Sequence to fold (409 residues):
Amino acid sequence: MAAALDLLLIGWLLQSALCGQFEVTVPQTIEVLRGSCVTIPCSFDVENKYESNLDKTCKALWKNDQDTVVFNSSAPEQTTIKGELTGDLTRKDCTTTLNNMQPEHSKKYFFRVQCNNVLRHNFPDQKLEISVKDGPPTPTLTPSTLKVKEGTSVNVTCSAPAPCLSHPPTLTWTPSLGDIHETLQENQDKTKFKTSVLTFTASHLHHRQEISCTAVYNKQDGSTESSVTTRLTADILFAPQILPSSDCTKSAGQFNCSCESVGKPSPILQWYLDGFPVNNSDKFAISNETVNDTSLRSFINVSDPQGRGVPTLLCHSSNSLGSATQRFYVYILQPYDLVTLAVFITIVVILLVVVCALLLVIRAQKTRHYLLKSTLAMNQHVTSGEGIEGPKATEEDIYVNTAEPWFWK
Fold:
C-alpha cells in the first residue's frame, strides 16, 4: 500500500512538472534610492495549455496592493510610474525597470500578464515590496575586520547594491593600496550588486591605517548624487624593528643609551653589554616606557664602566614573529685620557712650529743664494764691457761687493 502511494505521488509531481502551473518569481523586497530607478528581476510560468498564447500581443502590468495598475508595458509613458519592460514575455521573462522612484512609491506590488487572447492572469500570491529611501544603502566590507601578518596577500571586497542597473554605484577605495578589480554580480533572488576587490600585500606601514570604501550613487532626477562610506582599521602583525632614534650619550664615568622598538605584538627589550645580559643593579639603571600598543622604549645608564677601549652595548628586541638587534659602540674618556690628549696636542703644536721655522730658514737661504749669483753676473758685465780693460777684481773684492749690494743701501 505504501509503495502504491509513493508511486501515485511521484506521478502527480511529474504531471505537475509537465503541465506547468501559474507562478512568478520576484524578490521579496528591494531598497531603492529616492530619485533613482529600480530594476525588478522577474520570471514566470503558465499552465501548459497556455504556452501557445505567449505571443507578441502580451504585455506586463504591475499593480499595487490596492489592485491599481501603476505600470503598463504597452503604454510605459502614460502610467503612474514610468518605466520599461526589459524582459521578453514570450520567454517568460518579465524583468521591468521602474524610473524615478519616490517615497509615495514605497508599496507592495504584484505582476500580471495580459495578452490579446485567453491568457490573462494575476500573480497576487508573490508580492514584491519596494522601499524608497532618502539615502543610499551602506556598502559592505568583507572581511569586516582585518588582522593579518606582514607579507600576507590581502583581498578586501566592497559590495554595494545596484538596484538601478542603468546607474550602478561607483566604488572608490581610500587609500588605493594595490590592484582593484570590479564586477557586477547577482544575488540568489536575481537582484544585482557591484563588487570591488582591493588586493595588496600587508606591511607594517599599514598598521592602524584606515581603509575605506565609498559608494557614490547618481540619480535619474538630476538631484545631487548620494554617497556613503564604510571603513575598517588594519591590524597588521609584524616582527620588531628598532627605530633610528635609538642612540647613546657619553661622559666621563658613565654613558646613557635609549632604544625604541616597534612590533606587533608589542616587543620585549633586553640589554647586553659585551655579550652579557644586564639588568638593574648598582652599575646599571634600566627603565622602560610603553609608547603605544606596538612601541616600547627602554633607557639604560651604565655607571663607572670598567677598563678602557670600546665597550659594546646591544639592544635586543623580540616578539613571537621575530627579533631585531642594534649595537652601540661607546668610547669612555677617563681623566688620564684627557691628560694624554692634552700632551698629544701640545707635542703636535710644537712640531708644527719647528717645521714652519725650518721652512722659513730654507727659503731665506735660497733667496740669499739667488741674490749672490745675480750680483756676480752684473760685476762681470761691467769689467768686460767695450774693450776697456779695467782693474781685475780679486776674490776679496767680489766677496765685499756681494756682501753688501748697492740696492741694499
